Fold each of these.
Amino acid sequence: MTTHPILRNEENLSFINAFGIDGYWIYDLQKNEIIFASSLLIKLFGFDYLKINAIDKALKEINLNKTALAPYIEYFKYNKENKSGSINYITSAQNKLHFHLNCKHFTHEDGTCYLIGAHSEFNNEEKYTRNQLVLQQQFERYKFIIEGTDIGTWEWNIQTGETVFNEKWADIIGYNLEELGVTSIDTWIKFCHPDDLELSNQLIEEHIQGKSRIYDVEARMKHKNGDWIWVHDKGKVVSWTEDGKPEWMVGSHQDITDKIIAREQNKRFVDQAPIAIAMFNKNIEYLAASEKWISDYNIKDNHIIGKSHYEVFPEIGEQWKRDHQEALRGKHLKSEGELFLRADGTEQWVKWELKPWYYKDREIGGITMYSQDITVAKKAEEQLRISEETFRNNFENAAIGMAIVSPEGAFTKVNNSLCEMLGYERSVLLNLTFQEITHPDDLDKDLTLLKEVVNNQRDSYQMEKRYFHKNGEMIYIVLSVSVVRKADKTPLYFISQITDITPRVKAQISLRSTLSKLESIVNGSTQVSIIGTDADGKINLFNVGAENLLGYKKEEVLHKRSPEIIHKASEMEARSAELTREFNRPVNGYDVFVVVANEVGFESREWTYVRKDGSEFKVLLTVNPIREEGQIIGYVGIAVDISQLHEAQTQIKTLLELKQTQNERFSNFAYIVSHNLKTYTNNLTGLINLFVRQNKKEAENKVLKFLVQSIEGLSDTVEHLNEVLTISSENIDYTKITINHVLKSSINNLGMNAEKADVRILNKLEKEYYIKGINAYVESIFFNFISNALKYRDVKKDSYVEISAEELDRYIAITFTDNGLGINLEKHRNKLFGMYNTFHKHAEARGIGLFITHNQVEAMKGKIEVKSEIGKGTSFTVYLLKA
């Protein structure tokens, strides 16, 4: 058979070698069929692949098992990760073949997608002569090949104990078959070293139990001359009894004494080496490791010999594994430094070298690895690099101006921020000294401080000073200067950090002006009460407006009284009780005005003010804390007289009551109209039915049909009008509604929208559910929730909206779940169902849908619950009365 192109891929070959011990096939996902099968799999299906047309027949027979393959084909429509499981085939002769199947997805460079199915753990439920013949032919062919080598072979019937050795097997231990006489499993036991026999039996048992693909052991055998020799013994169960027990096991026997001696010599060298070195076999399993290796890698396991390097270090990356394989092919590899990320998250830098080690006959026996932990040196080197790079980046990219200044005062290096601050090109600024751009009034202080640094009286200084901008304007700055000294303590250069505080200085000048103006405003507000207090509640500000509104003179209250004197006692007591419950602690006296402002920054609330003469009036009072360096030092309360506003509210209430009366009259009128319309539509329907019965030929008349449809539409409209009118009634006459029917209708209506939005609508209703309510409202509710899921989908996801239902004691709970954008409930929960509230930028968002839906649900005595998380999706659950 020819090699299929995808088998030229190294990763695919490794997959087949690892899992395809009993054959494999290649499945073309575009053609939807198996297009290639290995010779071994073809044989297990009962075909001789060397015969004409046998391959085509075998492929056809394997493809007949599409039902068995279906779960794997379906899985790879949506996934690319490998999948494994059991599979049963039925041949044309009705033989049952059982395998463990490992499946791998592969996309060829031409874009074609394939599956590779690797088979292992073959077992059929009956013994078939044809399969036994194939097995025997295969064994004879391998036996012929083996006879030309130095490998002994053995065959062992596990059930009967019958054992067959070839001549080379006997020759390895110094005998011929005739000398051995009648052979059995006891022959092996007789010559095997007792210490190795236990391990051999354990490995055979593990293989029979399916824990290992093959039986593989190195053991000592007693030679005829009395010496112990080492052999490499390998085998595999090749047939099973009808009741599933292992029958025949075959294997090989190879003298590896010279290899063991060479390996032991290398191991002794490794064990005694003062450097970090380890020795591995071809499976990258430890043969030896020096103490330095153990300590450098902090290996806690005292028994790593025989274990896989990848078991000891599961964090080893794929590149190192490829390097190991390269060394096994004879290459000498090394690295001057490579990062090894340990499983515990620590970083270790390693300098390493890989070499193959050889037996006497120059056969590669494994690899040796030399390593040196250079983590300390690497970290020091990295810290130095980071330090230099950090200073350079901080210097160049600092938001403040920075300069390196010579002892003579010349700029030797400046950053972009300083150039922009002063308006000079870099090349121009580097030809200036700091003395030339400093305001004359500030220069003496600067030079005095600098001289103290030069004389070792200080290492740094800071001052506020003024620079001249290129355009002549004044720049206010904070200058911080530090020194870098030579070994003799004389200055090498100065590092200057220049912060532009011009806006702050100008703001201070402006603030002083503003404060003066504010003082005039406070005293000029004759109809707005502005009262200030200290932190304890004593009044320290009482403006003219407060005097006018309350009748007190400021001299009567300043530093003497609390604002409690102008408040209604009953209101303060009620507010105290309310705040005590809210804050779970006593809130009394002056605290009732400021406790909320302390928490959230301010509080606006209606209060009743009491004038000096005892009269009362309503105000809107806003209280703000006054802070200084984060500490509250007092409060200011600004109050506006809203008495007239309250009068207006009273008038509005009267108008609303009048409007309500008019609405009730309109509702009665609407009832009469709807009732009369219903009577007329019923009469029209009866007349048309009578006409059709008397004139049956006219039943198919298009005009008559259109008239019937129009009357039916009018009748439905009247029905919906009646339903809407009943919303305001306490005794709504609900109808029995089938949820499943309404949901299917909504899904059909939104089908095109869902397809356009690439959103899957999943109907998860498992049975029929019945509610009582208004059909038009239920349709509207379903429509709104599903259409919202389409609007606010996450375009980066495979989007869906899922509808499910659950029957409770009083309600049917219908849940609409999507994986869309989600809503910030912590921020928006209280206004979620408000009118004109939107929570995402969307062209069709109007903020009315959830408002209508909420009112419709409440009109039917239901409720809505919502769960949502930004970036994960939203779940609305609607509770409607059960029919």
Amino acid sequence: MTSFQKDKGVATKGYCRFTKNIIYAMIAICSYIYIMILPTTVWATTILNKEFTAVIDRMEEGITTNYNFSNDAEYDLFVMMLSLGGKTPTNSPQLFRSLEEKRRMHKAGKFKKVAVYPGEPGADPGPVITTQSINIIPGATGDGAGTFRAMGMATYEGGSPHTYGMLTLRDKDSGRLLVWEKLEDYGSPINTVQTKAYGDYRNVEAFFTGYYLDKDGNMIDFSEKLSAPNDLPVIKNEAPVSSTGMVSDTCVVCVNRTPSQQNQCVYGKDNNTNAVKFPVKGNIAYSVPVKLDASRRPVGGAAVMYLVKNTGGGCIAWGPKDDTFFSDPQTVFSADKKNLNWNFAPASFGEKQQCMDNGNVINFTLRVTTFDDNMNMMPGILTSTPPTVPGPNWQQVSTITLIVGCLAQGTLIETADGRAMPVEDFQAEGEKVRTGTGAVLTVMGNTVGDEKDPMISITTEYGYNLMLTQGHPVVTRTAGIKLAKDLAINDVVLTREGAQKLTSVTRKPYKGKVYNLMLGISGEPITTDNTTFFANGILVGDLRMQETFGSHSANRLSEQDILKKLPKEWHRDYFNYRKAKKQ
């Protein structure tokens, strides 16, 4: 760490004061910190002064928040975290101009703390902060000490043009920064950074702070801290699980669909509503009793259950949390207060979010935090977003794949023998279709349901017309797979007569049934790009492709797209960043 400090010009037992500026906007970031204990030794010597320590101590554990830059100590702490990463007014002029402007706004009384969760009393409209707690995994050293590893993650729905984060570990008694690591990137929707330090993990605190640019080019600051608990409970998940029981396999959840075959959806086989719902069942075993009040609810306890797209943190669906979680009749503490069981059959995550398209891969998280009689924190977490190494109070669960995309009733599907068959007539396994690659695949079955959202109607230059749901994948010649909602006039799609431009793309209200097919049985040549069929003469994807497409949608922005998204005043910062990376 010493050489790193010298390279970045970081002073020990002190800090440098710079000025900068950020246009105030609401936070729409999802920041995560995971912490693990592993056998490595890393130390640093920088010490936070009392003012900085006081700022961090005032922050609420596990809650992502933003700074009030009218407070000198908060302002100087943020600037120090920038300087640790080598940020200066010279190499990041717009960053510091933005910060100074934001500080002037805060001093003029325009600072407003952003609500933590959507729908809370007094919450601002629009995007808000989401959080996930630190996770602790014990080491194997005999004296109770070990290596403390943390991972910070910052995401923004659709991809932020620019993200910067500084992840630090500090000794809470001395204020010493044990280690720090920087993340900085342009054009990636998910950014992660990891760091580690040797010491008694119960006295180490992780602090993750930085900024990102939102969709309007505003620079938004964020910070989160969490400490290690004294007790590490053991958490177990019973639901949701994938059809194979393998954590590595996704769990298919159907929304507003009734499949003709039972094996297409793990959950939602009979879900003919637009709500996202599936069972959530599990338990936590504690080594010491949980502190409960007279109604047997945990004192200071908190529970958060949510779904978030793996392409970023701005698209969130909330399940039962806090009082709703603990007051459920199936959420029960044992008589000795050392076991907690829950069983939501099913848990509801509300109406399907518009941003959760068909085939999207969704990360599921359940975080349960309780305290012992001495108010020591005892967290447990189930999540599809894994840290490097699992532990007793953390368990990885399968991702969720939503199946919601379909074709309008009456859509004609071309079979392998050249017939045109209405999509609703594919009721059982046996019919065969010819794919866009020329392979012949068997239809396993179809899904059927009602569609509440407007449908997408597309027309090609030679008159092919198709009505399909917004999340249905369509094969294009130049852009690969695109969701119907992302199609535009002049996009080139593939038809049974070759490539054709789209001359019309419109949204239309639709009342009626919608259908989709799943292609391919065991022994057939199934690949990631050949489960396609011709619908009204236009090549589209099946259910398998919807699942595959969702898992590949978090692509990094190109430099051209980055410069398009970045306001011109941020271009100099970007070019300086690129220059520094090449050196």
Amino acid sequence: MAGSMVLVVRFWAAASLCVNAFPSFRTRVPNGFRVTCPTGTEGCLPGNTSAGQPDSICNGIGHRTCAGATLPLNPFGQALQKYNYTWTRELCEEDSDGDGLTNGEELGDPCCLWEDYDTPSTYTGTFAASHPGVPNVASGYVRPACATTAPASKAAKMNAFNPWEEQRQAEMFIDSYQIPAARTTYVDFAVNFPDESMDIFHVVFAEVILRSPAYLHHFIIKGCTKKWPDDKVGKVISRAESRSLNYCDTTFGGWAPGAPIVSMPSWLGRPVGGAARIVAFQIQAHFNNPSRVPCQISNDGFRIHYTPTLRNETATVFASTTLSLNPAMGVPAGKKRFFLTRSCQLDVKDDLGQPAKFHVATVNYHAHLLGREMYSELKQGSQTMDFGSSSIWHFDDQYNQNLLSMDVTLQTGDHIQTTCVFNSLDRTETVHFGGATTDEMCWATFVGWPGNVRANCSGHLWMGELSDDEPGLGLALRHKENASGFVWDGSDFNTGGNMLGGSMRTIACVDFPQAQGWCPSIIVAMKANASVDCNTDLRDYNPILDGQTILTICCSQACSAVCPGHTLCPASTTSTTPLDESLCRAQTTSTGSSGLSGQTTTRGASSLPVSDCYGAQLAASVALLLVVLIGDL
């Protein structure tokens, strides 16, 4: 019908953006990892009694079932949401389930003295916590003296200014970037740090300003030594421009759902400014648009809370693994607990190359949609300890885990075993390691101090499979490297280095996104060398391509140029009609400009957010509509 249109509309309920089975919520209430599963409740899991858990634990204490991710929320979950996911006195003193005991009495904090990451008293740490969202029989409960329930030690405050510090904040934005109608897009943007009043500042906290939650997958922020030209601020820059116009090689921070960009305790600061060789930033953004919705605009950005009042210590970062890109490495389909593990032998030195010590503050894990469990195990001499593991991990909750209460100092000779566990039961093909949301990664990043110390890892990576009830800790003793079919030497952090054993050869015709830049030169080489054909292993071209052929990474280009008619090539190619970008420009014009400048700065008191939902809180006030216009306009 002339003039008609069909609206394809997708809604996200307001609650769905923030109401999830986020594992980090358990750190925000006392004994969140030690709640006994009520009799007859669904989703109970066996507890780790050696770690002080009951025989049966409830992980989703705010949800309809103990498995979590089930709605509606139970009365305690509704109360936790009402108090912004924070253990306030009001939440503590409330009796959410109406059984005669307050939430604090049920969780072992009857006098409401505990706060996030406090070391609990003996009373709280050994208390048999009951479920605050399911009525329990309260008979026989005797309230203890408050002195016996006070935390043994208070946790360091994170992401807060000290009373004597001058408070400033700066905001930097992407300037009205049109998100491509493509599944995966990697693109870089230039922004300048706007404050030039001093040579150095300390960053207290940095957070995302999320304006396109349906499309922005994550970003990494690199610090740059020179300011960008005004016409580049907020705009797309190429890696070539980055090299020719600037020098952006310092990782400042990164964001993924659930994670702040920078998170500091009260004595630690992340340096920025001319003396820190960071006066501008390069935002390396990853957009995910699997439905290929056109005309979507990004004005996303980030906010830095900082002070000219320098703190006593400067932060630094090291990673035990940052496996990101290897088309010869993957998670096989149909696996419940497939693991990748990295042996990390530490070498810790200061800037002068002398032996040093690294004090650990936080750990953050990163994977994509198949990630389910994350483990780090530290061995110092004959002692082995859990080093910030997450036996339940979600992509949407990539929080920084506070390790300060462990009081760990790393030095040369220490060993960290880091493991990512993946669930691919709903996949029908191998999921490779790469940059797309539907690919996988395995990262573990530690923040600590002092700033002049560097910790480096050496060691192999290998893969295998865990049984259903097998613990993730101690894995390297049960699944030894020499028994694995897939081993890499770890010489390259991003790719895993050279493959030492096994093969993960795939037989599907695939366009591996991060390999497309290599494809034309491989095809030219094939045409010039009669001994190279469509079935040739590409290891000699690049070691990380071990087990791959031109068809398993460059399907479309190879089938068109050198392998037409091959059995792996699709029978036909579906063409797509290019988007008329004038329609997007007209839409942008009609809705008005964003009104956002490349960066702003303010001074004075700064109200730091207490919710990890970030921009989702704003989005939760309305239904989010993604509208695709189809038909005659």
Amino acid sequence: MLKKLFVFLIAILFVAGISGYFYSQSKIPNRSGEIKLNGLTDKVTVLYDHFGIPHITAKNDADLYRAFGYVHAQDRLFQMEMMRRLSQGRLAEVYGDKLVSIDKLFRALGLESYAKEWLTAIESRGNSALLNTLDSYLAGVNDFALNGQSPIEFDLLNFPHHIYTRDDIASIAGYMAFSFAFAIKDDPLVDHIKQKLGEDYLVDLGINYTPGFEQIPVDPIKSKLLTESVSQTLEQLVGLPLFHGSNSWLISPKRSESGKAIFVNDPHIGYSQPSVWYEAQLKSDNTDIYGHFLALTPMPQLGFNRDIAWGLTMFENDDMDLYAEKINPENHQQYWAIDHWATFKTRTEVIKIKDKKSIQFEVKESRHGPIINSTFEDNLPFPNAVSETEQPIALWWAFKNTDNLIMEGFYDLPRVKTVEEAAVVASKIHAPGLNLMFANANGDIAWWASAKLPIRPEHVNSKMILDGASGKDDILGFYDFKYNPKNINPESGVLYSANNQTADMGNGLVPGYYAPTDRASRITELLATQEIHSVDFMKKMLIDSQSKTAQLFQKIALPILNTGKNNFSQIELEALTLYKNWNAEHQPEQQGAAIHNRFRMSLMKLTISDELGKEYYPSFQFSFLLARSIWRILPNEQSIWWDNIATADVETRDQLIVSAWRESVKFMANKYGNDLKEWTWENEASVVYQHPLGIQAPLDKIFNVGPFPTRQGMETINNTSLKQVGDDLKITMGPSTRRIIDFGDIENSWGILPTGQSGVVGDKHYDDQALDYSLGKFRHQYITEKQVRDNLEGELVFIP
């Protein structure tokens, strides 16, 4: 009997497995054959190469973008839907109440309503070519959404069908702009430090605060709570990309082995699955581009052809300000506006929640922007902890306060050829701030810091919460684009950007959240090692993992640790030998990398957590402020941060370095044992590309990709960021692609994605690039029909 039951259960599992296999295979994108596509005027051919990348050829743009919309959707429809819901505050409808706080934030930002205003402005400017492109692309997306196979995620979450619109495209563009901004996360943090600890503590943080200047008094408890709640809210964006930084450098013909310009770029974005970029080659009578596209976006943000190549890094300029408004004590619907009581604009937002009743909340707007307090209340320790009626905080954002021709700019960019034409495009990018990197077949290399830069009063530190009542801290206007930082065909023959501070163009340094010197210094160091550069050397540079911060730690800490007065244990001495001999690189087998990162974390926590508080320090631990502050605090033996304010004694830098060393070695021994061979970077940090459904077992085993060993370090060229989860370190971001285009050999251009081209689980292109990416390898980006046909996976033909 038991034997029969066992056989029966095995049979059931076998049938279920077979059924599951055929179900998942039914979702695989169609990459060969013939499909009738409504609205076409002629045949469109799509050649898929062996990485699943479509190379689309049509006779006109209308047919081209219609077909592109279809193939993009069949690979990435779930990603499109998630980005739409995120940007418009509609995640709780399908995920439940745990994402209400995210929905509140994006409803308050008002991206969906702003999208309508933005598109109306584009229509008024008569840009019919752009609008026609949006409509053709959307027609293709919607054709697949209504008639194609629904993604597995749609079936699991019971997603309703949606007809995608221009508003959806513009809303997602708004989300991507928001993801570039640091102010909403870091300004309350800086303000809290100033309010609680005083001006002296800002000196080593690189805040550029002017001591003695007036600041509106803000309750330090409330600024602290606001920072905690912002951080907790944004941490819920698991599996959805946030932009973090980037590298790019350009080599002129006189410094290039091929005698032509070389273009290099690797934007740093939060890891997610599927990959943030979708690659496609588009060809028609008016278009010829190999591009990298964001979800539900027909204009490539990165791209190249035989004439030009361009890419982006984050400018990191400060384009958000937080204003503390003064409420009318007799009428909470009013706030003080320079010389009178003004009435808040209000709107009621209704958030639908899966399996629960909908909730309503009121969004108030002052003359500066939306009041953001209530959007974070769900992550506060008690109700009304940051009450709108006591301390309303308004968000001013350049993205919603400029003409913002960014969509027109990215539509024009694939069609320019000269530096002069590219400069016009650069002037159209108002927000978010981007470093536009450009090279062409003529040998030009150029960089523009593209943004509409606000003119702030001289006394204003934009990293503080500002006075919203008096008008003294208000934006005065915007600088003309001619004052923006730029560099065209420099005499040195090289250009680079690594999110570092731009030089003064005559109107002062641009305020921002700039990266520390590490990556920029390493890039210039490597470029200076030889006069003439090859593509192979560019590949080595892109995967370089040597840390300048680690070298700074070694320079300062090793003499202190090596004094012989510390009475170290045997294991502490063995670890010290490994650290001393470490080359500051981050390879999987290296023990020095693992030891350093724990030592760094221990030292910074001992240095700063007593001032900020243990419950608050995690908001600071991996922020841009800490990365910049290390370079000011560590060399400064007299820094105010070294003393532990919780003790009567005055602690010194040397004492904290020794204590941090002992603490970090003890931690490693407890976690891995006394065999230092186990103390490797591979064991300490690996990368998992997380799908939005992969946050819950057992779906993580189905939808997530990884783990893979990492060859990245914090603020190395091959960059990453870490997050501490319990005792483990989780890698959260890195290069979203690595691209090399040599105009002397344009048909052998190189790229790679972190996981794969497809967003369809079970598809071989879901993760077929992941191993090569982790190993620092590259693949060809094919641009000729012969190359594609020599590496052909399938041919799909769309007919009217």
